[in-house]
Design a protein that fits this description.
Elements (H helix, E strand, L loop, with lengths): L1 E3 L2 E4 L8 H8 L4 E6 L6 H14 L4 E5 H4 L11 H20 L3 E5 L5 H10 L5 E6 L3 H7 L4 H6 L21 E3 L9 H14 L7
Parallel strand pairs: 3-5, 3-6, 4-5, 6-7
Antiparallel strand pairs: 1-2
Helix pairs in contact: 2-8, 4-5
The structure holds adenosine-5'-diphosphate and magnesium ion.
The site of adenosine-5'-diphosphate has 15 residues, from helix 2 and helix 8.
GO molecular function, one term: ATP binding
Catalytic activity: adenosine 5'-phosphosulfate + ATP = 3'-phosphoadenylyl sulfate + ADP + H(+)
Protein name: Adenylyl-sulfate kinase
Length: 208
């Protein structure tokens, strides 16, 4: 019997089919690919490209996209620091469940605070949290401004916008970094290839 947070008198119920059984079924290893970076840095683009590449190789993945989750699970949260923290904590917990289900869970969220990302890393064991830093200059993201949000933030119409008047803390220990080469951003296919190669090298695309 245990107390966890505000939950008292709770028991953990073991289930007969475990993660290893599911991984064997899927011929892959469950993990979380956590994509972090500024708005407009290409997180969703990489997530989709990676999802497509894995699907074509017969690997089961699922995308947890920050914007999409704010339509449902996290629609009660705003963008102040404690809401951002709770947003990331919840997505970390959901990602952990997907990884336990045996899936390659692709989480794409700005996730600006290092301690929040590290909190999600700590939820997973054995290197199963693979942090991908979209290291794109602010100027590139702002130039793209696909959603017109930078323009609004610069005009003071959105407050607390990451990179403008709210901090972004780059990872210190990420597994993968996506950078421009000679001022040119890799294509979505190339970005996905970089992550897929990592997954392949580390054995995530097979169950043994
Ligand atoms: N590798 C890339 N090369 C060129 N344009 C890109 C690349 N990745 C993303 N983009 C473009 O940048 C914009 C923002 O990308 P998006 O994936 O929505 O960013 P985020 O999810 O990080 O906010 C989109 O218009 C997208 O088409
Ligand atoms: Mg996005």
């Amino acid at each position: 019997m245990a107390t966890v947070g505000n939950s008292t008198n709770i028991f953990w119920h073991e289930c007969p089919v475990g993660k290893l059984d599911r991984q064997r079924l899927l011929n892959q290893k469950g993990c979380v690919v956590w994509i972090t970076g500024l708005s407009g840095s290409g997180k969703s683009t990489l997530a989709c490209s990676l999802g497509r590449e894995l699907h074509s190789r017969g690997k089961l993945s699922y995308i947890l996209d920050g914007d999409n989750l704010r339509h449902g699970l996290n629609k009660d949260l705003g963008f102040k620091a404690e809401d951002r923290t709770e947003n990331i904590r919840r997505v970390g917990e959901v990602a952990k469940l997907f990884a336990d289900a045996g899936l390659i869970c692709i989480a794409s969220l700005i996730s600006p605070y290092r301690k929040d990302r590290d909190g999600c890393r700590a939820m997973l064991t054995d290197g199963n949290f693979i942090e991908v830093f979209m290291n794109m200059p602010l100027a590139v993201c702002e130039e793209r401004d696909a959603k017109g949000l930078y323009k609004l933030a610069r005009a003071g119409k959105i407050k607390g916008f990451t990179g403008i008047d709210d901090p972004y803390e780059p990872p210190l220990n990420c597994e993968i970094e996506i950078i421009q080469k000679d001022g040119v951003c890799p294509t979505p296919y190339e970005m996905a290839g970089q992550v897929t190669s990592y997954l392949e090298d580390k054995g995530y695309l097979r169950d043994e």
